Amino acid sequence: MCHRCRLFLLMLILEVVAGTPLTAADAKPVVRPNILWFIVDDMSANFSSFGERQIQTPHVDRLVREGTQFTKCFVTAPVCSPCRSALIAGMYQTTIGAHNHRSGRGVEKIHLPAGVEPVPVLFQRAGYYTGIGSWPSKEKGLGKTDYNFEWDQRMYDGNDWSGRKPGQPFFMQVQLHGGKHRHAAKWAAIAERELGSTTRPDDVQLPPYYPRDTVILQDWAEYLDTCRLTDQYVGEVMKRLADDGLLENTIVFFMTDHGISHARGKQFLYDEGLHVPLVIRGPGIVPGVVRDDLVEHIDLAATSLALAGIPQPKGIQSRDILAKNYVPRDAVFAARDRCDETVEHLRSVRTSGYKYIRNFLPERPHLQPNAYKDGKLIIQRLRQLHAQGQLPQLTETLLFAPTRPPEELYDLREDPFETKNLAGDSGSQSVLLDLRGRLDRWMDETRDQGRQPESEALYDSDMAVYLGEQSGRPREKRTPLEENVQLMKQWAREGK
Prior knowledge:
- The structure is a single chain.
- By secondary structure, this protein is an alpha/beta fold.
- About 35% of the residues lie in helices and about 15% in strands.
- The protein has 14 helices and twelve strands.
- The chain has helices at about 5-20, 60-65, 80-90, 120-125, 185-195, 215-245, 270-275, 300-305, 370-375, 375-385, 395-400, 430-445, 455-465, 475-495; strands spanning about 35-40, 70-75, 130-135, 170-175, 250-255, 275-280, 290, 295, 330-335, 345-350, 355-360, 405-410.
- The strands form two sheets. Strands 1, 2, 3, 4, 5, 6, 7 and 8 form an eight-stranded mixed sheet that branches. A four-stranded antiparallel sheet has the order 9-10-11-12, with helices on one face.
- Strand 10 (about 345-350) and strand 11 form a beta hairpin.
- The longest helix has 30 residues, at about 215-245.
């Protein structure tokens, strides 16, 4: 029940008990909470309160102490734009046609289905001031949106909460650069200046499928320092809320948009790409609670609307995870489709104990050519070690096999890093059949638009943006893209 409904119910009860009618003037005005979302780029749950042992993250840890922590939150897409499109609509990206990364950017446009509205529109209509900005930022423009559908910029009133009217509640998104910081020039010097120290590469603990190579270790150490810097920025925003006298009436959500950008993380359906941290802190949120039930990142939409007393839109797929009558999910779902120029089609379902992944294009390798990822030193180093025959067998098998199995099944309790595929194991067939059926039903019930290949017109429309002068890419960086586009079309013709 919303805050306003509770107030009028209380008024009615008092009227009955006292026998004297109450007017609205007799009641104190309802104070609606502010809602603030931290959304962080390219970062897994590598915070000390989530089990990371190599670094300390005191500000996120404080959010955890003062709020409710969700240890099993998963995104429905492991790459920025589909994830953010789903989040802001409270709908699966596959349902709203926003599943291909950076799509609808050319002459061919994508529009939300009838009746689906972005969350800021609903807050704005309810009288909230809506903002989206970066931190730290001196820019006057909006923060990162990256939506794959057409939207009206007027759904955001500004990039900061300071422009609201006196007493007006706000819905604010604070975008943090997160794991992307480590790709900045002279990042080590920046980290030293901002943090006072840097993480030693030799101290890094890698997943078992990455080699302890100097380039990989250095990259992961720099990534951990981006987690430390992210934590510092969280503290600065929280201090500003306190200084502005807003903290005690602001419900804060902290989440990232997908996992670490690595060979099995960002863009892929393993937990390295899908598992993200989630914390909710603020008035009415029980402090010190740790929840281990499965939640999806799109649940921020319904939960935030409910906290603000805003009715849920009809058909929304998001769920209010703080509702008293909330029934926990017994499975979470995810999808990966085209990323930039690289065509892919993956779906997954995860329970508390198992993960099932379906590879719809099994004749293609795990690390398909992709100009974005191939531009990273870690991927270049892995490809170099592969060419030299210097990778461990596990890494070779998981990253560089020329084809993939049509189905993957992992026992997450025994194999949390998802390295042993049980899809062909005779003792796992009942689990395989169950999860296969669940995924089929989910695709049907949610009207998965990715079941049909992206039209050539839409693909060409977006590739024209990638390859055109307006992309801002120098000519030498457009050549690998052109080659990859032609390869994607060739493989499609070959039925691969």
